[in-house]
Write the structure tokens for this entry.
Amino acid sequence: MITTVKLKPLHWHPHIAPVELADATPEQLEAMKVTPSAKKVSEYVRTLVHDPESYVARTVLFNAIMYVEGGLDRPARELGALGASLVNGCTYCAVTHARRHAELTKSDDVVTALYLNKPEELGPRDAAIYAFARRLSVTPSEATPEDIASLRAVGMDNAEIIDLIHAISIFGWANRLMHVLGHADSEK
């Protein structure tokens, strides 16, 4: 019998009370318009928007890295975010980006391999992306020309490699924000 990992969404609990939409300043309401999700404005967003100027700068950068057209495909960006989040111990981001990767690829195979600690079951491209995400997240200064060569060996070009570096790196930052500003647990 094949085991498939199906991850349930987690709920993030802020340590700082989020801005209530009814009490938000005009600047905070305007800042929240750059939120990538059209579904709802999360507690995380409402926590970060206490400082609307930095929230906008962070979110515009995040959107440009994760949602831009062209360059590295979305599943690979999500895999980079997942690899970084696993190394950084951010369960909320890891689950979120694992679920997004599975949704985009219409397969749980990569997520299952990673959550069962079997990266050897990944295809060559996914394995190279995941290994690079781990390397860059553990100690960025130890990345080598050989790490870049491993990405080139699976067909990645300069633009895709830069996109991957951005996706991994922004999650070094995003994971740390999540850790300091709150904690995650299973949704009830």
